[in-house]
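A quick aside before the break. I want you to see a complete sequence-to-structure record at least once, exactly as it would be stored in a machine-readable document. Don't worry about memorizing anything.
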Amino acid sequence: MISVIMASYLGNYKGAALNREAKIVRAIQSILDQTIKVEPVIVADGCQKTVEIINKNFAGKVNGFLIGKQSTWSGVPRNTGIEMAQGDIICYLDVDDFLEKDHCEKIERNFKGDWVWFDDIVYNRHLKQWKARKCDVNTKGLCGTSNVAHRKITTWPVIGGYAHDWVFIQNLKNASKNYKYIGHGGYKVGHVPGRYDV
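That is the input. The structure line, written in tokens, reads:
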């Protein structure tokens, strides 16, 4: 089974997406709408509002955990999700993003070794349409949290900074050389600071 981990903080910070309370509902629903059975694991990073949204919209359908507020981009919320997850494969979803219905099925069908990486989908403001974006685990800035799925083989850096996902990918590469590129995923990036917010 695949566990989809979402770390949620809905407070204000520089570069945050707008309307995140609505976007988290969209994100969680996209997990529940997957074509295979998956486990949603939502970790509220000191965010009572996340708990209220889960209770109002997804009671009995989502595993939610409230932890104390962490520093921005700390790995603690995702590490908590990994610890609580029941699935043997872990992937991630940010609050302001969402998944195509077959995203997890593609991962499961193509999963080989200890971890995989894949491309995502971004919004082109000028063309007003979604376009596949090529990602690369070997180049900083071209692969992030949304682009990997893995077994429970390593943890996130506790003090991360904005490039915490790049550090985590290096941790994955150091933990296992048994990984594979699986092409197109189904992860839609709903917000890129300074570029778009849908």
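Two observations worth writing down. The helical segments are 20-32, 48-57, 76-84, 103-110, 164-175. The domain at 2-191 is CATH 3.90.550.10 (Spore Coat Polysaccharide Biosynthesis Protein SpsA; Chain A). We'll return to this after the break.
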